[in-house]
Amino acid sequence: MALSLSYAITKPFLRVQDRSSMNCELQRPKNGVVALIRCESKESSSELPEKHSKLEIGSPIIFIEAPKMIKTAATMPCLRVNSGLVKPGDVGRIVSRKPKDVWAVRLRIGTYLVDGKYFKPLDLAEYS
C-alpha cells in the first residue's frame, strides 16, 4: 500500500520541492486562483523507513544531536536556549507523543518537548 496525500490550497502553487521520492500531480484552473496537488510515494509503505516505529510511551531514547532550543513540557511551556542542558549521548524516556514528530521526553533535568530528529530509540542490547 503506497502512501497517498491530497491537499487543496487557495493560493497559487509554485512547485513541489522534493519530487525524487514522490509522484506528484498539479492541477490549476485557467484563472490560477485554486491549485490542487496530489502526491503519492513511489515506494510502498512497507518499504518506507519507520524511524520511530519502536517508540512508545516509556521507551528509552538517546540524543544523537543537541537541539539549539528546548521547550519545557509544562502547562505554560518555556522556550529557552539549550546552553549545555541537553547534549548528544544524554538518555531520556518518552512521556507522550505530540503532533508533527514532537515527543515529550523525561530527562534528568525535567520534561521537554523534543523533535524526533534529535534522538533515536535506545537499544539496551547494544550497551549490555
Automatic annotation (TrEMBL):
One of its GO terms (cellular component) is chloroplast stroma. InterPro entries: CRR42-like. GO terms for biological process: NADH dehydrogenase complex (plastoquinone) assembly. Signal peptide: none annotated. PANTHER family: PROTEIN CHLORORESPIRATORY REDUCTION 42, CHLOROPLASTIC (PTHR36799:SF2), PTHR36799. This is Chlororespiratory reduction 42. It comes from Glycine max (Soybean). The gene is LOC100305889.
